[in-house]
Amino acid sequence: AQKITQTQPGMFVQEKEAVTLDCTYDTSDPSYGLFWYKQPSSGEMIFLIYQGSYDQQNATEGRYSLNFQKARKSANLVISASQLGDSAMYFCAMRERQGYSTLTFGKGTMLLVSP
Amino acid sequence: DTGVSQDPRHKITKRGQNVTFRCDPISEHNRLYWYRQTLGQGPEFLTYFQNEAQLEKSRLLSDRFSAERPKGSFSTLEIQRTEQGDSAMYLCASSPDASLADYNEQFFGPGTRLTVL
Question: CA 20 to 30 Å from B14, out of A20, A39, A100, B97?
């Protein structure tokens, strides 16, 4: 079974609108961390936001927020007020306590922001 | 620039040749990771170093692959007898020792894109 599932291969949004990128995960580890990375066409992975499994509040970083629903095992990324520069691949990733050193990534969602 | 650097950025080679990639992590980071990313996929973990010790290896890392981090600073990833299936982006990341066990952000380099003809 896949540990990280991103069901949206591509998403389109107009500039200044909000968009939600879906991510569900599978783990039996009670302690884990969830990450979102952005990968523009240049290839570099850019860290966006982190949510720990024991965090009581949803993480926020500027225009990025994470809608963390632990019971549903989902960690959706919300981007508010989309900008043209947000066009990129977005990856959800998980680090489990058992395999504490490594990240397991989903297949990604391509986001295209139009003017 | 004090980010993670990788060299070369692009490598084209013929099947059967050996290739070596280099990664220079952020200087104060003692954890270093290698990932492979094929087209349309997310990065897949290959191996992990804590200082000079290689602590984890994925089953993706066949015996044609070897990684070193001899002095706990830069790392090299060598692929022997390359195959067309080795064509991918090879990403290096580094992170500091985590004081908070769960939050250990990995900083990625720009990657080395390998094409095996």
Answer: A39
